[in-house]
Amino acid sequence: MENFPVINLEKLNGEERGATMEIIKDACENWGFFELINHGISHELMDTVERMTKEHYQKCMEQRFKELVATKGLEGVQTEVNDLDWESTFFLRHLPQSNISEIPDLQDEYRKVMKEFALKLEKLAEELLDLLCENLGLEKGYLKKAFHGSKGPNFGTKVSNYPPCPKPDLIKGLRAHTDAGGIILLFQDDKVSGLQLLKDDQWIDVPPMRHSIVINLGDQIEVITNGKYKSVMHRVIAQTNGNRMSIASFYNPGGDAVIYPAPTLVEKESDENNNLYPKFVFEDYMKLYAGLKFQAKEPRFEAMKAIESNVNVGPIAAA
Ligand code: OGA
Ligand code: NI
After folding, report:
1. Can you spell out the DSSP letters for 192-229?
2. Where are the transmembrane segments (predicted)?
């Protein structure tokens, strides 16, 4: 089996730039995932984020999670649970406007550190989007622009802990899904594993690696690239021992951004008439996704196509 793609971003500045761009391209085409090292975000900042996230979990979240498990009687389940996940989470929004100051129970220092981390991740996401553009033959800035809408991108962070689970075969840490948005940057626990992606019908571990950032591509990148890059199914298996921290940041289009395949990636004769992917407003996709997250993405694309053709046909039918 091939190895999970690891990209040393520092090599973009030297004579191995070409080879590194090729690894990124191969990862985007064949994995939908890759792991970044030497990404420029300071290890010290990452250590602080990790320490404060774990402290916050123990202080404010763990007890609540245990109570939830008890209330729902999850400790003793005997059959597969398909309607919830074995995770404890909270969300932070950074763009278009930060809501960090409104999130309850966070220490001021933790808010400050998460803001700083988010700013670094935002820059990294935009740098990565341009690397994708380069590999796709799109002009620099194309993806950033495609995500812009009227207020700029949506950028947010889901802070998760996957506590030890007595029945990981019956309750997933997080059920299989593709991510709806653009590009996702994940800072995951360096010791407790659990994240897996689906490749060639097999679940493959995304290996924990200290101070790395895992990148994956969401449904919007699949649409804009006309399927050249695909969003890939992934899931989290909770462990019977050990609590897994994961901090996933989602760099997504703005709510009113109109998403459609880049014209230069649509091959004239073959794709144009049997359009593979729909054109839609991103927030409409998110409304659909909210109810269908844990299902295959294809019916979501089909549903958006149906809406699109209604919109297009409407005025003609009325005339
Ligand atoms: C997600 C996700 C993975 C993880 O939140 O969409 O896939 O490791 N998270 O928490
Ligand atoms: Ni995901």
Report:
1. ---EEEEETTEEEE----TT-EEEEE-HHHHHHTTTSS
2. none
Q: 242 lies in a domain?
A: yes
CATH number for the domain spanning 157: value is: 2.60.120.330
Which atom number of ligand 1 is nearest to the Cα of residue 162? 10
Measured CA to CA, the distance from residue 312 to residue 310 in angstroms comes to: 5
pLDDT tens-digit readout, 130-173: 999 999 999 999 999 999 999 999 999 999 999 999 999 999 99
Ligand 1, from 158, 178, 249: best to mutate by most atoms within 8 Å of Cβ?
158
Category of 40 on φ-ψ map: left (φ > 0), alpha (ψ -120 to 50) or beta? left
Report the alpha-carbon distance of residue 309 to residue 241 in Å, rounded: 50
In a domain, 149, yes or no: yes
Q: Is the pTM for the entire model greater than 0.90?
A: yes
The number of folded domains in the chain is: 1
Q: Are strands 6-8 and 33-37 parallel, antiparallel or unpaired?
A: parallel
* CA atoms of 319 and 192, how far apart (whole Å): 61
Per the structure, the complete domain to which residue 297 belongs is given by 6-311
CA atoms within 13 A on the CB side of 25: 11
Q: Is residue 177 part of a domain?
A: yes
**Rounded to 5 degrees, what angle do the CA atoms 314, 315, 319 make?**
120
| Tens-digit pLDDT profile for residues 73-83 | 998 899 999 99
What residue has token string 């975000």?
41
Residue 23 lies in a domain: yes
Report the C-alpha gap between 18 and 20 in whole angstroms: 5
Which single residue is written with the structure tokens 């449904």?
219
Exposure pattern of 39-76 as b/e (b: 16+ CB <10 Å)? bebeeeebebbbebbeebbeeebeeebeeebeeeebee
- Please give the number of the atom of ligand 1 that sits closest to the Cα of 214: 8
Dihedral class, residue 188 (left if φ above 0, else alpha if ψ from -120 to 50, else beta): beta
